[in-house]
Amino acid sequence: IDYTKLKARSHSKMQTLERIPHEGEVMKCRQSPFKQGLIASVTTSGVINLYQSHALEQGNGVSKGNSLVGKLFGLSGETFSLHWSKSHSHLLASAVDKTMCVWDVNS
Predict the structure, then answer these.
(1) Torsion angle in degrees (nearest 10) through CA of 95, 97, 99, 102
(2) Handedness of CA 50, 53, 54, 56 (dihedral sign)
(3) What is the DSSP letter of 93?
């Protein structure tokens, strides 16, 4: 199937709430369970970007803006996992470079 030739269905009830520009490929992304609108994404180089999504923060409506609020370093290369702690502001990740990192995004 050539997916580039498929057309979007005009009768779809779904809409894009926000488009967030990203530096490089997005390998994984996760929304924080503790802070509404906070999204972590990881690049192919292992850098983790933190974004504040205004559409997710507001809970409705279409957002035209977003903001990169931070970058986390410590991993190199492809990242295997990216997870938020359910009870704390901790973000956990592991990578092909045989390292695991835990960050407290509130610090």
Answers:
(1) -40
(2) negative
(3) E
Average pLDDT for 42-52: 91
User: Which helix (H) or strand (E) covers residue 56, if one does?
Assistant: helix 54-58
Instruction: Find, among 83, 74, 68, 82, the residue nearest to 45 by Cα.
Output: 74
Tell me the C-alpha distance between 95 and 45, whole Å: 10
Question: Beta strand pairing status for 90-95 and 100-104?
Answer: antiparallel
pTM of whole model > 0.85?
A: no
Angstrom distance (rounded) from CA 97 to CA 31: 24
CA angle 7, 59, 49 (to 5 degrees): 75
